[in-house]
From TrEMBL:
GO biological process, one term: proteolysis
Membrane topology summary: Multi-pass membrane protein
Name of the protein in question: Intramembrane serine protease GlpG
Chain ranges passing through the membrane: 20-43, 82-99, 111-129, 135-153, 165-184, 196-214
Domain Peptidase S54 rhomboid, first and last residues per copy: 66-213
Keyword Acetylation: no
GO cellular component: membrane
Organism: Anatilimnocola aggregata
Length: 299
């Protein structure tokens, strides 16, 4: 999380009777999605006009004035199957919060919305140009899958499901999700009436792998780096690097840059509270490393 999102950096907030400023980004996304569901349920009529208008239709490729549907479909869900919205929101609540804690709220919301759009565009292209199927797509499952898989990639040794089922490492959980979707793609056409978009789930998983491999940074508004920078990150991802010696203990699955960024944030917080005279020699060296890393990311 960048220091701009830390509590010490924020200005005093005005009165907030609804507590919206205190809510996490994950919670706000869930509240927005549930509100859309309820508005359509009570005011959309028997034809659920709101869901129909916001869902993504493959014809968006020839009707560009409906391009907003590439994003809005991720906030509407089936009105006849409560499990649809319930499953997606549980997944977003569990893994969205975990990813937000490590990467920050700005990172999460940008990545989540980008995932929804990428999944929607890929689905619409496949169904319009290849399958010639004109049914709608609705639901956040592509974006939620992208959030889950990215967390598993960034934190492969994190323990999951320890409070509800058998504890498993995150990388195993991620692999099982991908395998289940691959199986669903193969079996889906054989199941008459199946409406689960397994191909959208796999697109979300593939986008997560791409973001992880290229180290695309959604947190600082600089995620549209040059392709050259992405290729450099891809090479570095699979190249061994000496461990950085910093003060804080690394979290499970963190790479060296994650550790350095976290330690840099801690030092900046210390400077804000006590001044730079309070820094040790080791902290000053770490701050120099952090500054070089930030300059390199801006190039």
């Amino acid at each position: 999380m960048g220091y701009q999102e830390r509590d010490y950096y924020r200005d005093d907030a005005p009165d907030d009777p609804l507590g919206l400023r205190a809510m996490s980004v994950t919670a706000k996304l869930i509240v927005l999605t549930v509100l859309v569901f309820l508005v359509d349920l009570f005011f959309g009529g028997p034809e659920h006009r709101i869901t129909k208008a916001l869902a993504l239709w493959p014809e968006v490729w020839v009707k560009p004035w409906y391009f907003f549907q590439v994003l809005t479909y991720g906030f509407v869900h089936s009105s006849t199957n409560v499990q649809h919205i319930l499953g997606n929101m549980i997944g977003l609540w569990v893994f969205g919060r975990l990813l937000e804690e490590k990467q920050g709220g700005a990172y999460l919301v940008r990545y989540y919305l980008a995932s929804i759009m990428i999944c929607g565009l890929a689905w619409a292209a496949r169904h319009y140009f290849l399958l010639h199927e004109m049914g709608p797509l609705l639901g956040a499952s592509g974006g939620v899958t992208a959030v889950i898989i990215l967390f598993c990639l960034k934190n492969p040794r994190a323990t999951m499901l320890d409070k509800v089922l058998i504890p498993v490492p995150a990388w195993i959980l991620g692999a099982l999700i991908v395998l289940a979707d691959l199986f669903g793609v193969q079996m889906g056409p054989k199941e008459e009436g199946s409406r689960v978009a397994f191909d959208v789930h796999l697109t979300g998983a593939a986008f997560a792998v791409l973001v992880w491999a290229l180290k695309i940074n959604f947190g600082r508004g600089t995620f549209l780096d040059s392709p050259g920078r992405w290729l450099k990150n891809l090479r570095n991802r699979f190249k061994s690097r000496p461990a950085l010696r910093v003060h804080s203990e690394p979290h499970e699955g963190d790479d060296d840059e994650d550790v350095l960024e976290r330690e840099g944030d801690r030092i900046l917080a210390k400077i804000s509270q006590h001044g730079d005279a309070s820094l040790t020699a080791k902290e000053r060296r770490t701050l120099e490393q952090y500054s070089r890393l930030m300059r390199a990311k801006r190039k």
